[in-house]
Amino acid sequence: MFSQAAEVAHHLGKNRPLKRLAALAYVLLSLAFMIWGFWAINPAAPVVGLLFALANVYGCVTGLFLIWNSSSIRLRGDPPKDFRPTVDVMIPVYTEPTEMIELTVIGAKNIQYPHETFLLDDGKRPELKEIAEKHGVRYVTREGNRGSKAGNVNDALHLSSADFVAIFDADHIPQCEALDSMIGFFKEPDVAMVQAPQLFYNEDSFLYLDTNVGAGRWHEQALFMDVIQANRDHYDGCSCIGTGVVYRRSAVAELGGFPEATLTEDLHTSLLMHKRGMKTAYVNEPVAWGVAASDVSEFYKTRRRWGYGNLQAFALENVLFCKGLGWKCRLGYLHMILDILQGWPQLIHLLTPIYSMMTNISPVKPSFFNLVVSLTGIAGLMVLLIAASSGYIRFVQGQIYSMGLMFIQIGATRGFFGKKMPWQISLKNVLGNVAMDKLFAHGVILSGSALALVYALTHMIQAFVWPDPTKPSAAWLLGMVSAWIIFNCWRSWTWICSSIKLTKRTHREYLFEAKLPVLDENGVLVATTARLSTQQCEFESSAVTSLWHVGQKLTLLIPGHQVQIILTEGSEGPIFEIRCADEVSHDLLRRSLYSVDWHRQPRLSKYMHGTCSLGLGGDWKAVCLRFEDGSIQWALHLAAPDGYKKDRLMLSGTHDISLTPRLERFEEGRAFQHPIKIGECLIPARPVPQGLLRTPFVFHEIELAS
Fold first, then answer.
1. What confidence tens digit (pLDDT) does each residue in 258-304 have?
2. Does pLDDT of 481 surpass 80?
3. Which end of the chain has fewer CB atoms < 10 Å from its terminal CB, N or C?
4. Is residue 645 classed exposed, middle or buried when 0-12, 13-18 and 19+ CB atoms within 10 A define those classes?
5. In 3-state terms, what secondary structure has residue 514?
6. Cβ contact 167:92 at 8 Å
7. Is 369 exposed, middle or buried (0-12, 13-18, 19+ CB in 10 A)?
8. How far apart are CA 458 and CA 160, in angstroms?
9. Rounded to whole angstroms, how far apart are CA atoms 511 and 532?
10. Among the options 88, 121, 122, 233, which is catalytic?
């Protein structure tokens, strides 16, 4: 229905003059703020004052990099269709859940482009060999686990002969169009790698917000995936992220295989390619869907590995002074280094106010002017940065996540000097668990800040009750530092609370926002779904669910198929426990849900320029079509959008619509039927991806009879 890359470009293009003005103001104000920071160092605290000034410089420079990285992006468009080389698809796995791996195998096997699929099992599990045989993919294992993921793929390269190799992680389910979206860009012989964004289907993860930016919900990596990578693509310098990526075999061979010396073979590989003058390309379209970290423990594992491994690769390759890198590419990697090391200035900004409270000494010269600049300077810069970044940078969430990342980033600094850190296995689960041990350090910071505030206030009250004329007033210092400490306390408290709260909102299996009609045992439409998994179902509020009972059989209409489910015990609130009636139904429902985009794109359509401009954007409702031959089919219905006279219908292209169907919808507790007249076929700029079931989708104008 819409192109993600085109939607991001449209979003960034809105209010461009205002954004450029904000960017210019940020540049000028940040330069002035950095100069002021060194001029205002308090001679009474030269070390703390200098550290404070350097921390401010660090933040300003990082902001300048963000301004540069969001100044423009490369919109590649569709790849050439006349380049059809041979491709092998590889799925490296270790200890991930077998059901998750099987979905990835099904997705990889279902990729439309001709290919051979390899399941690379470093865990040597018999059940994975059975999965490979069941789905007709090649099962590969090896002796030992040398080199972790990179070693696993390197060993398998000797068994592969294709010109190109695609890599998908165990938890990243490829879409049918994955290779078609990327392989054409290799027609340019200098392109050594094509990378797609890393996207996640479990949007109840604590990394996501229920607000949209660009072409989807805002998440912690949205700026990097949508903007920074597309900006670096301008100079053919995007970095690899390890999954949803295709490599030219000859380029990997020139490197001597994937590097095994670091934890992040992905970034290390793209860095080596850039040093040799090879080009990398970025395609900002979904090609696979993975599992986002569901709790703080999993978040820490992945971010620690990324930070440590990336810094290790930068040190090994001497990224700042090595030969071969273009200046833009080098600046891009410098920005990554600064971003990973942000924990240190964060720590300075946390400890400085505590020091000032306990010693009654400010890091800047005591004056009203310095007080105003200290309180408003950073806030003003942040406002300008938010305005210049089209909403990809968010103040509240940015401050919370920077607090959460602080200790990870400080620990990752060892990657500059240490040996390769042991590989940490991510559980790849969607059910979050509260890990209080991971939040302990933030509790210490919170407690220390609160105690410092109480200590200073106590002394201030004493000075007010029993004034000492020989000592100058410290009211200005109390005002500045108190606000600062309260802000830091808020950040720590919010990180702890949100980590616990958002972790608890996850379910043992992700509930997709999939709109499906629900029929009873007599084939009568009795409800529509709001959210759904293979174990749980939340119905739209208009359904009379109080009349249902344990053991009741229902039928879900999914695109092109019907699935039988049974209500089971354990239902709580609006969410009902369910099970599929048989293995066939379970397989059909599971494969349909994890096709993701057929239900994601209609949900997001009302926010997208590409769909709204065609009259396909709005609130799509689940309906069913009853045909003259007695058959029934899933569909989505959109009432006439603004500016259009006719309704829209989205349906799976597996039925003959010439049989004159009746549209049936469920509303206000009962079903309504409408004879319909199907009109012109609408062709969106991009088709809805087919997903695991390879179900095609079509759009029509329709007219409803009263």
1. 999 998 999 999 999 999 999 999 999 999 999 988 888 888 888 88
2. no
3. C
4. exposed
5. coil
6. yes
7. exposed
8. 72
9. 5
10. 122
pLDDT band of residue 427 (cuts 50, 70, 90) is: low
Poorest-pLDDT segment among 15-19, 266-270, 332-336, 542-546: 542-546
CA dihedral 636, 640, 643, 644 (to 10 degrees): 90
With a cut of 70, say whether residue 469 has pLDDT above it.
no
Instruction: List the one residue out of 314, 150, 290, 311 whose CA is nearest residue 221.
Output: 290
Task: Kindly tell me if the per-residue pLDDT of 542 is higher than 90.
Answer: no
The predicted model scores a pTM of 0.92
Structure tokens, 402 = 């920077």
CA dihedral for 622, 628, 629, 630, sign (positive or negative): positive
> What distance in Å separates the CA atoms of residue 101 and residue 96, rounded to the nearest whole number?
7
The single residue listed with the structure tokens 């070390």 is 47
User: What confidence score (pLDDT) does residue 457 get?
Assistant: 75
Angle between helices 395-412 and 436-465 (to 10 degrees): 110
pLDDT at 473 over 70: no
Residue in 119, 240, 244 with CA at minimum distance from that of residue 175: 244
The least confident of 183-187, 400-404, 448-452, 549-553 is 448-452
- Residue-wise pLDDT for 28-47, tens only, equals 999 999 999 999 999 999 99
**Residue 706 pLDDT class (50, 70, 90 cuts):** low
Q: Which amino acid is it at 144?
A: G
Order of strands, sheet of 288-290, starting from the edge strand that comes earlier in the sequence: 173-174, 288-290, 199-200
State mean pLDDT over 542-563.
Answer: 87
Q: How many residues does the chain have?
A: 706
At residue 404, φ and ψ (nearest 5 deg) are -65, -30
User: How far apart (Å, rounded) are the C-alpha atoms in residues 544 and 528?
Assistant: 11
Question: Which one, of 486, 407, 400, 494, lies nearest residue 450 by Cα?
Answer: 486
CA–CA distance, 13 with 5 (Å, rounded to integer): 12
Contact 227, 12 (CB under 8 A): yes
Options 266, 295, 597, 647, the catalytic residue: 266
**Pairing assessment for the beta strands 525-532 and 199-200 based on DSSP bridges:** unpaired
Whether 534 has a pLDDT exceeding 90, the answer reads yes
Please tell me what DSSP assigns to residue 693. G
pLDDT at 369: 85
Nearest to 385 by CA among 39, 71, 11: 71
Q: How many CB atoms lie within 10 A of CB 444?
A: 11
Among 513, 694, 485, smallest CA distance to 619 is for: 513
Backbone angles phi, psi at 337, to 5 degrees: -60, -50
In this structure, are strands 87-93 and 164-167 parallel, antiparallel, or unpaired? parallel
Ordered by where they begin, the domains of the chain are 17-57+342-504 (no CATH), 87-340 (3.90.550.10), 513-706 (no CATH)
Q: Is 122 annotated as catalytic?
A: yes
The answer to whether 186 and 83 are in contact (CB under 8 A) is yes
For residue 71, the one-letter residue type is: S
Instruction: Give 90's strand partners.
Output: 118, 167
Q: Is 266 a catalytic residue?
A: yes
CA 366 to chain CA centroid, Å, is 44
